[in-house]
Amino acid sequence: MWFNQLAEDLSRELAYEAIDCLVLSGDVAERAQEGEYEAALLFLNRLISEFGIDRRQLLITPGNHDVDWATSQDAYQVMKTADAPARYVSAYQENPRYVEVVTDEAAYARRFARFADFFRQATGSPYPTDPDQQFQVVSPPNVGVTLVGLNSAYTTDHHHPDRSSILPGAIDNALHLLRTRPEVRDTVKLAVWHHPVRGDGCIQDPSVLERMAVAGFRALLHGHVHKAHSDSFRYDIAPDGRHISIVGAGTFGSPDVHRGYPWQYNILTLSDTGMRVQSRAKSEPSGAWHADARFVESKGAQPVDHYAVTWARPPAAPVTPAAPTQPVRHAPHLIRTLTALKAHLRDLEYDPTGYRIAVEALIFDRKGRMLLQRRGPASRDEVGKLEGVGGQIGAYEDLIACLQAHIGKEIGSRVRVSVDYLLEARPVRFVERDVEPQDWIVVSYLCRLTAGRPTPTDLQRTESLHWISLDELHHIPDEELSKSTSRARDLYRVKFGTRPFFREIGDLWL
């Protein structure tokens, strides 16, 4: 029944004739019993036959239900705590005088023996007994993408059913292979393991994602939580920086469907520039698979059954000069450091010597409104005027980091903003209280609010916050805006008119 339900969905509903790659992200079995793997292998063999799947394109990782608890029990022995060896695989203690200790690593590794036998029969390759070698590399032909499977259940046993980790040695060996094998070195990398990186049952050390982001991984596929979801891990703060999209799959056939979530599987359409994730669901055991509209794109919009992940923006097509309201289709290079800013100013034949330097964020929401703050009574200049969020760079060399620090300090530490576009670096003279006029260079960035609700943190410095449409912005009298923001507003109008910048340079919300 399970095979025919899926085959009908793939062939009749979705009109697929072939599958290039098949990923099982763990929990193939319920209790790691031989009969369960026999049923799973029968299912896979029929799927392979009907949809022409190459066994070398099967990627299978173990989950916590693929650990044989009876075998792990046999690998433990009770010892006096004082006599326990300094080095052991795992321990479980209920009495302070005695501890259960694993001293035979080979016996302990055999708790994956039934999974390994299934893996060998399904893929045609052995599953390593050495945890440092428990990774699998699959590269579908003509796609430019490589998938790497890892074992997140290598620390799981009957005493520690919820413990999960990614072994550093396995990552080291996998990354070495990716660096040294020419046919996969320059491909987009996707990781696959069973446990999530946040929430229930998550891996103990999610910082492993930092290494994977540096190594060029752009997505992680996992299971375990029995519901489909999307998330992300960002390593660089820049909008085009390194980040990993996290794609969680639901359970395809577990009897433990709970909290209203249906049975579920994902269809991934891969290319060297991105991935389309489509969710399919089944509400009844004997029912049919159908579209699973669970992903919300924006406020008020109806959920959809798919979303796109882009990991390499294609080169922009050449454009001819156009009217200010026409799409620009490219963003100038972000000036990120004080050193680069000074070089940029000298290229413009400005001498930055003697100028104070400030950064300003002009933040947009999805509706295309700009956030401005009304400067409070404790501000040193431009009191009562509307202005972007930001301030003096002080000792910062990294302008983007400085801007993010001001955003957190002024409108909330939970606010997250993507810095997308350099609007301008320009000289401005401000008249401050009880001092001579001060010359500044203000660096304005166009940004998008990606998380959090902006709220003034110091009403003496930020009296209020205002979301203003671009049409309204262009009708605000100059005397109500700070000198800096008035200049930025006029430049924005020349560049983008009354359209949000993120639609002009390619809709960054997609």
Description of the structure:
- It is elongated, with a radius of gyration of 28 Å.
- With 510 residues, it is an alpha+beta fold.
- It has 13 helices and 22 strands.
- Helix 2 runs parallel beside helix 5.
Give the arrangement of secondary structure elements.
Layout: H1 2-13, E1 22-24, H2 34-51, E2 58-60, H3 69-75, E3 76-80, E4 91-95, E5 98-102, H4 105-109, H5 113-123, E6 135-138, E7 145-150, H6 168-180, H7 182-185, E8 188-192, H8 208-214, E9 217-222, E10 229-234, E11 243-248, E12 263-270, E13 274-282, E14 290-291, E15 306-310, H9 338-347, E16 356-364, E17 370-375, E18 386-387, E19 389-392, H10 399-411, E20 416-430, E21 438-451, E22 462-468, H11 470-473, H12 483-496, H13 501-504
Parallel strand pairs: 1-2, 7-8, 8-9, 9-11, 16-21
Antiparallel strand pairs: 3-5, 4-5, 6-7, 10-11, 12-13, 13-14, 13-15, 16-17, 16-19, 17-18, 17-22, 20-21
Helix pairs in contact: 2-5
What keywords describe this structure?
510 residues; alpha+beta; 7-stranded mixed sheet; elongated
State the low-pLDDT regions, or none.
313-331
For this structure, the quaternary state is single chain
Largest sheet: 7 strands, mixed
Percentage of β-strand residues: 25-35%
β-strand number: 22
State the distance separating the first and last CA atoms.
Answer: 38 Å
